[in-house]
Amino acid sequence: RLDELEFExxxxxxxxxxxxxxxxxxxxxxxxxAETLGEIGMVAEMIAESAEIGALIVTxxxxxxxxxxxxxxxxxxxxxxxxGRDMALLGQDVMTQLSNLPIPVIAAIxxxxxxxxxxxxxxxxxxxxxxxxxxxxxxxSLGLLPGFGGTQRxxxxxxxxxxxxxxxxxxxxxxxEALGLGLxxxxxxxxxxxxxxLAEQMLKxxxxxxxxxxxxxxxxxxxxxxxxxxxxxxxxxxxxxxxDFREGTSAFLAKRxxxxxxx
Length: 263
Ligand code: CO8
Fold this sequence. Notes:
The protein is an alpha/beta fold. The chain has eleven helices and ten strands. The chain folds into two domains: 2-202, 2-enoyl-CoA Hydratase, Chain A, domain 1 (Alpha-Beta Complex), CATH 3.90.226; 207-253, Lyase 2-enoyl-coa Hydratase, Chain  A, domain 2, CATH 1.10.12.10. A six-stranded mixed sheet has the order 1-2-3-5-7-10, sandwiched between helices. It has a four-stranded mixed sheet with strand order 4-6-8-9. Octanoyl-coenzyme A is lined by residues 28-29, 31, 68-73, 84, 87-88, 91, 112, 114-116, 138-139, 142, 144, 146-148. Keywords: Lyase. This is Enoyl-CoA hydratase. One of its GO terms (molecular function) is hydro-lyase activity.
C-alpha cells in the first residue's frame, strides 16, 4: 500500500481507491524543492502502476498554503543557464507525469497556490479552491518566468489573453475571480472534502472510460481539430471493445447499477 511508504517532504493517505498526496513543508509554505519534486514523481510512478488507486487528490499541509511556489532559496543557489534549465526540465517532467496519469487527479487548494504551486495545480485535471485561496504566477517579480509548464498549461486552460494578464502583471487572484476565469472548477469551504466528493462521483463510472476521456482531451489539445477527431474515434473504438462498455449498456437496459471492473 502506498500509505505505508515514508517520504521526507510529503505524505500519502489512502481511503479505499482514493489517494491523497499532501505536500508537507509547512514552514516553507510547502514550497517545492528538488527533493519534493522527486518524491511527487515517485508517487506518480507508483500510482501509474497501481490497479488499486482510482483517483488522486493533491493538496498542501496546513491552512495557509497549497504550495507557495518553487523553493526560492534553492532556486537562488542554482548556477547559470544549465542549472535553471535542468530544474525546469525536472519540474516539467514531474508535472507531465501527474498530468498523464490514467486516473482523475484533483487539486484541493486551501491557501496560496503561487508560481510552481499553481503549475502543480494546473497539472491536475480539476481544481477546487477554498474561498481564502490566492492564486497567481508571480515569477516575473523574481526576474523569472514560469518553468514547470505554466506558460503552456495556463494559456491552454484559460486562453492566451487571460494567461498573459496573470503572468505579465504577476497579480494574485481570489478563488472567486479564479472561478470566473475558469482557472478553478469549484470554490468550496472545505476543498479537500469537495475533492473527495468529486472523486467518489467519478469513481462510479468506468475507470477505462475515465482514462480514455483524459487521453482524448490531452492528445486532442496538442493537435489540429481534424487529428483530434481521429484520436477520439480511435479511443472510442477501444472503449467499445471493453467489458465495461458491455456492462454499462446492459446495466442501463436492465435498469440496474453498473458494476465496472476496469476491463
Ligand atoms: N520558497 C521558499 N520559501 C518560501 C516560499 C518559497 N516559494 N514561500 C514562502 N516561503 C517561506 C518564507 O521564506 C517564510 O520562511 P521564514 O519563516 O523562514 O522566513 C515562510 O515560508 C512563511 O512565509 P512568509 O513569512 O513570507 O509568509 P507571508 O504570510 O508573509 O507571505 C506569501 C506569504 C505571500 C505566499 C509569501 O511567502 C511569498 O510571496 N512567497 C513567495 C511566492 C512566490 O513568489 N512564489 C513563486 C516562486 S518562483 C516559482 O515558483 C518558479 C517556478 C518555476 C521554476 C523553474 C525552475 C528553474
